[in-house]
Design brief:
Layout lengths: L9 H14 L8 E2 L1 H8 L3 H14 L2 E2 L6 E3 L4 H22 L5 H12 L6 H19 L2 H8 L2 H9 L8 H17 L2 H12 L10
Antiparallel strand pairs: 1-3, 2-3
Helix pairs in contact: 1-3, 1-6, 2-3, 4-6, 4-10, 5-6, 5-9, 6-7, 6-8, 9-10
Length: 210
């Protein structure tokens, strides 16, 4: 039986393209995205651009002030330090809860990350990186923990853009996450917790102004 695929709308295609460029660092933080210029560059109507930008603002990747063009959100060193302050205990809680278990969805994200070609855009790495950590949170089975973690997703993704230069060798990033999942899967609880702390203590690479 064949299942017809629905064509991707212009809005969806533009959202995906702009998200890719932001998360690859191709469009740096603070860059303005005027509707007229995007309309001309991508050959789409301004309402299409407006809808795509609104979606990315909702995701937290863009910010917009009244009567001004949308801009790629800027996350400062102080923002990232505070983000990690909040994120670390959530991931420690997940690791302790999952100690001694393998999470198939996290393993799958790791294998997809490992299989990415060397010239894959950094946004693809960010997507699998996020999928791996999110899978661990979801596996705990706490809707409240999941909501708290999801609220940090946009800033986390923007922070991961900074890791691109720190992980020019993709194999190092894959190995670090494999070690993390192995430690959680093997347990016990304290070893899993320590593995998460060590993993997250790598920081965000070089952070201007930190």
């Amino acid at each position: 039986m064949t299942v017809p695929l629905r064509p991707v709308s212009a809005v969806t295609a533009l959202i995906e393209e702009l998200r890719r460029r932001v998360l690859s660092g191709e469009i740096p933080p603070g860059t303005a995205l005027p509707e007229q210029e995007l309309s001309a560059a991508y050959g789409v109507a301004r309402p299409t651009v407006r809808e795509a930008l609104a979606a990315l603002v909702h995701e937290g990747l863009l910010r917009r002030e009244r009567h001004r063009s949308a801009q790629v959100a800027e996350v400062t060193g102080e923002d990232l330090a505070d983000l990690m302050f909040v994120r670390r205990p959530l991931e420690e809680l997940a690791a302790v809860s999952l100690a001694g278990r393998r999470v198939a969805e996290a393993d799958g994200a790791l294998e997809r990350m490992a299989a990415l070609p060397g010239d894959a855009p950094w946004s693809d790495v960010v997507a699998e990186h996020m999928a791996l950590h999110q899978a661990l949170i979801v596996a705990v089975g706490s809707p409240r923990l999941e909501r708290l973690y999801t609220a940090l997703a946009a800033e986390t993704r923007l922070g991961l853009v900074r890791l691109r230069d720190s992980y020019s060798d993709r194999d190092v990033l894959v190995a670090e996450h494999r070690d993390l999942l192995d430690a959680i899967g093997a347990g016990p609880e304290e070893a899993a917790r320590r593995a998460v702390v060590a993993h997250l203590d790598h920081g965000w690479g070089a952070i201007p102004g930190a």
